Every structure is written in C-alpha cells, then in structure tokens.
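Handover notes (outgoing to incoming on-call)

Open items:
1. Phosphatidylglycerol--prolipoprotein diacylglyceryl transferase: sequence verified, structure written out, both below. Nothing else pending on this one.
2. Nothing else urgent.
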Amino acid sequence: MIRAAIDVVTSIPSPPVSSFTIQLFSWTLTIHYYALCIIAGIIVAVFMTNRRLTKRGAEPWVVIDIALIAVPLAIIAARIYHVLTHYSFYFGPGSRPWSFLYIWEGGIAIYGALIGGAIGAWLGCRWTGIRFTAFADALAPGLLLAQALGRFGNWFNQELFGLPTDLPWGLEIDSDNAAFPPGLAPGTLFHPTFLYEVIWNTLGVIVLIWAGRKFTLQWGRLFGLYLVWYSAGRIVWESIRIDPSDVYLGLRTNVWAAIIGVVLGLIVIFWQKRRHPGLEPSPYVPGREWKGKGAVQSQETADFVDVSEPPAERVESGSATSSVASK
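Phosphatidylglycerol--prolipoprotein diacylglyceryl transferase structure tokens:
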C-alpha cells in the first residue's frame, strides 16, 4: 500500500487534452499538439541545418529549397511505411481499408520519413547543387533534436508507451484511453518510452556535434553515426513498447528496421571513410559553387582536397570547409 502511494506521487502525469479548437468564421479548426510538436521539430531542424551549412560556405537558407521537397515526401513515406508495417490493421478482417488515407487519425513512422526524406533531400540537392553528403551531415544533429521534440506528441496523445512498471517515473495513462491495455487495473503505470527517447536523442545531439568536431566526420559519415545512435536506442525502446505491431521472427517490424539502421549506419561510416579519406572540398558539387556575398574561401580546403576525386573535379575555392567544417 505504501509502495503504491509512492508510485502515484512520483509518477509522470499525462496531459488531459491532446488538441484544441479554433473558430474561423463558420469553420472549426482542430489543432493537435502532436502536429505542433512535429512542426516545431521541423523548424528547429531547418534552423540548425542552415547554420551548419552556411558555416561551410553554402548559400544562406538554401536548406529551405531542399526542405520544400524533402518534408512532403517524408510525411507521405512515413504514412506509407506505417500502413505497410501495420498491414493487418488496415486490410485485415473487420478493418476499414480506406482508413489508410486518414492520416489525421494518427499513424506515421520515422523510418518511413527517413526514406522519403532522403529521396526528397537527394532531389533537392540535385536542384540546388549541394552535395547530398554535406547536407546529410549538416542535418544529422538537427534531425535528432527534431525527433526528440516530436516524441512529446506521443505524450500528449497518451500513446506508444511501454510495459507496466512500478518505477517512480512510471507514466500515467487514462484507463478510458483507447490505448490502455484491456485487463489491467486503472492506475497502472507504464514505461514512458517517449521520455526515454527524448533523453537519448538529446544526448545524441551532443555526441554528434562533439564527434563531428573531434573527428571531422564528412562525406555522410556523421549521418551514418546518427543512424547508429538513433537506431541503437530505438531497438531498446521498441522492444518494451506494447502498442500493436506486426511481428516477424519474434521481433516487431520497427525492431527489424532499427537493426537495419544500425548496420546501414556502420556501412556508411566505414565505406565513406575508405572511399573519401580527405575532407569535402566544398558543400557544393563541382561547378555549382555559390559565388554570392558571404561566400568564403579557405586555404585549408586546398590542403585537404579529397584524393579520391579526379583532379578535374577538385574544387579549391568558394568553400568554407576547414578542419573544423563539421562544427
């Protein structure tokens, strides 16, 4: 009895509401806090990426041109990935097949967003002349912080929590919430997986920035480290979550996706290190360098030209790249 009282006192409460409404003339607009968390994450990622790219000599706010393609594709792919990894929920017996279009009911997946966003970013980089690897490295810390902010949306929605726990930081979930597991007593506390991921991702931002400066990770290797860091944590959080998910060979689909993320990240780190032993000569592809006001030339760039590129493709001007280019 005493233990139960302590748990209630020290537990983490969930927000009582997940949305609010705004009256616009004859229309009632419902705004979900989850959407606001995602939007806040996107804004933070754009600002961080812009700062990191411009420090390397890129045109200020060129990141917006890339985001205009990458963000919509990321959202679309996130929804498609969620539906495919929860196929039985949308196309199984008694399901509503057309509900796969109802994104406002929830259901997007970060790994789908990464796939769609990567395609969109690649197209945006082709359009703007930015090296895809330079953009990916500049994006990595901001993306991880954006994911941390986005997880607060799960807290507002009272969803995607973990197994029951008696730990003092257990999460309270309303017993009448649709996500509350049947058969459990009201007042049962759960692992706050959203908070675990927020802490892990925020710590990862610090690690990525430090590693980028310490080891001058370029050519996509910092993004590879992001994949390893985020996916390693996701394996743990996903393993204790109890929300419905398709299972293959005893593992949830997102656990498999996280394992693939770790492997892919390691491949990117070691493959790019072997393929590009030097520094990126510019955040731009050869011939597409920005020559506008604020473009900076660094003599150090010439001293660290990537020897894996043919001489005709080496660029030694129009860049702010230096030995601390990943700062």
